[in-house]
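Name: HEPN domain-containing protein
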Amino acid sequence: MKKVRRFLLLKYESSYGRAVKENLFYAWKAGAQSFLQKVVGEKSTHFKELQNGCGSAYPDNALIEQSVLKAAKEEIDEGLLKSIENLVSADIFTDSFDKAEHFLEQGYKDSAASLIGAVLEDGLRKIAKNNEIRLKSKENIKSLNEKLASANIYNRLVQRKIEVWNAVRNNADHGDFEEFKGNDVEDMLKGVNGFLAEYL
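Structure predicted for HEPN domain-containing protein:
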């Protein structure tokens, strides 16, 4: 968390009863808000405290806001907050699911199935990484699913569901469009969305 350390190392030139340099104070505060927004989100206590807290450029206010950032850093170091990577992944997955839903609404079930399958594969790879499961350079849904199930990350029932989703995705990618229906893709969308929300 180099950015956090850089924020915390910033020293204000101040003395009792005097304002710190406003350009430094507001530049630091804007940077800190941007950082926390990306790391913990706008709904987090840390972000809200920094955003709505002390606004004037006085030494005490600077110390209070530095304390907020320190508290966030400690929780990040202790693993109590999601990593930046997972947060970014969640945003990407959400966008992809929205696109897949749009494809379905327009009747493009094949494109939707391919997109959802790609999201599932990426999600399985991230779940494996989060659980320190060693992967080869080339893995697919089938191999990732087998490794995760063997490591007891999820049970056999979940593994079978993923096998079904993978079959739909493969049929879409290989042009076997008659092998699945729009309802199958709708179920796949809901299932993959719920699966990633639970295991990522």
